[in-house]
Write a structure and sequence with these properties.
Number of helices: 14
Structural class: alpha/beta
Distance between the termini: 45 Å
Bound molecules: pyridoxal-5'-phosphate
Number of strands: 16
Length: 467
Amino acid sequence: MGDSEHAWKGTAYPIVPLIPDDRERRLVMTAPGGQHGSRLDPWMQSYARRTTGMTASEIRALFAVASRPEVISLAGGMPCLTALPMDTVATTVARMLSTQGLTALQYGSGQGDPTLREQILEVMALEGISASADDIVVTTGSQQALDLVTRIFIDPGDVVLAEAPSYVGALGVFAAYQAQVAHVTSDDDGLVPQALEERIVALKAAGKRIKFLYSVPTFHNPAGTTLSLARRPQVVEICHQHGILLLEDNPYGLLGFKGEPYAAMRTLSEEGVIYLGSFSKTFAPGLRVGWALAPHAIREKLVLASESAILCPSAYSQMTVSTYLATCDWMAQIKVYRELYRERRDAMVDSLGSLLPQATWTHPEGGFYVWVTLPEGVNAKAMLPRAVTERVAYVPGTAFFADGTGQRNVRLSYCYPDPDRIREGVRRFAGVVQTELDLLETFGPYDATGRGAGPSTGVQSPAPDLS
Ligand SMILES: Cc1ncc(COP(=O)(O)O)c(C=O)c1O
């Protein structure tokens, strides 16, 4: 077999060079054997089984429309970067490059820059965590840390416990590794410990292998709730009793609107918790710098998994964050963000209070999101095209469940639009809901009439700005 050929089920065929002009030819190529694949994808039969869990979001197309300026997007989780002192950041980056450019533009350590890892200790100390820099792995955003943890723990069919609802990006990772997600009831105080215990017992009785509990205990995405102080030790204890690792995902912990930050779950157990942090929400997501703090043995496996995936995280991004932490008043910047998001949370919650009496919603004490429960019979996903026509966008609740529930729910985010746009967005949203209720009254529920899209079919990858 020559360089330009390789075998596919015993048949040699030429590798078609991937140059733009050849794209069309590749599209119509028939896979050897004829009956395999489709006209658009001759390789359909070749993909690994795990790719069946990777489905494109049905709402992705709508988000292309939703990003038009006339549409007020209450959908994305994008931090408000206009609040960053961009000149200061630019000077910081320029200084870093002119003094340390040869290191910043070079490959670096697989575990991450030692200086940054020391600084991350200072960041985590704000949540009461005391640890060793040696147990930190710097990742390409905490999203990569989610991927690495899942990769080293999950065999197909293993169970991941997760709050109901859960972060859509984590559900996408779990699906990609063929985990079964078992949701655990959550309320305004976060995960319900008794429900957790019962779920574990039932799953074990059914012979399931539970690998970890995935939780966003503080300023939850999408629920906007926080696990109460009373429940935190109970959750840790239940996990400990049953030998289940706790994966604490905490990108919003420093963005609380009142008082001191919550003590992280990691402060309650060094050996039983993997803690994930990120600079995406407190500094800038474009740098893609996050981290995992893990028990020592796990840390080693994470580094190996990360090296095989990306060799090393970006030295440039890490040194930008490191220089920013060393030379700028990052605590003051976090305070700016907190005040800005508090004002936006107020704008959203007040508007909901005056414009949407038919619904209920959570009251976040930090973070980016409000979780709305609409009246019985409303299908939020089916309602979305009309909302976009009315120039407002949101994320339907089904995106945050692995089992298709959440049809009456909606995640609204208040992080990006300014307070006036938020008020106008909620006004438009309330109008869409009211029309929906009128339609329901006239024509009856979706399932009965076939008017709507029906229940979601499961986990989908998020549209680009759904973080
Ligand atoms: C709960 C949660 N975890 C993880 C992430 C991923 O963040 P990043 O990869 O930017 O650090 C997000 C992003 O929105 C999130 O909300």
